[in-house]
Amino acid sequence: MTTPIQSSAALIASLNAANSSVGKTTTTSSTASIQNQFLTMLTAQLQNQDPTNPMDNAQITSQMAQLSTVDGVNQLNTTLQALTDSMQTASAASLIGHGVLVSGSTLNLSSSQATGGVTLTQPATSLSVTIKNAAGATVQTLQLGAQTAAGVVPFTWNGSTTSGTTAPDGSYTFTAQAVSSGTTSTPATLAYGTVNAVTPGTNGATVTVGNLGGFALSAVQQVL
Questions:
Q1: Domain locations in the chain?
Q2: pTM value surpassing 0.85
């Protein structure tokens, strides 16, 4: 049979488990519920205890101390989460006005200048980028050469075409192709844009990158 002290201890264990997720609303709600259950059960135990075999004061004091400690840790976690969110928002705000690379395949040619990027998961013996116009026709293929390390590879395009002319300013798309150890792959592409707004949120700050839309701060692959 489960003793009163064991029942209270089980609630303390549940409280610790609920407190494992930092700064979550559901955790705070669960913690408050378990605290109320603990206090209700402890009160009932004290009111209905056997006078000839009273509860051990040391155990009651110990459990109350644990409850207080866990509650304090939960409040500390909530404060730390709020501080982390604030720091993330401040970090994101510092990007306003800066150019960044995020997931995308758009090239915006302006004054015969466009920037993009490619993410390599491994070194490549050769890397190329194929640029297409709105009609889907290839206008240029850039040879970026061998890449000795994995990571983000930024590139620029001056608007030159395969026919030797200059492409008009506007929106283009591009794909990438990498060759490594004789195997051809299509790496992920990155679009370039300027951060013009930051929006705080419950899941972290969101940065608005020009016409590309909103992205989580963690989605920013490189600041240029």
A1: 4-93, 99-223
A2: no
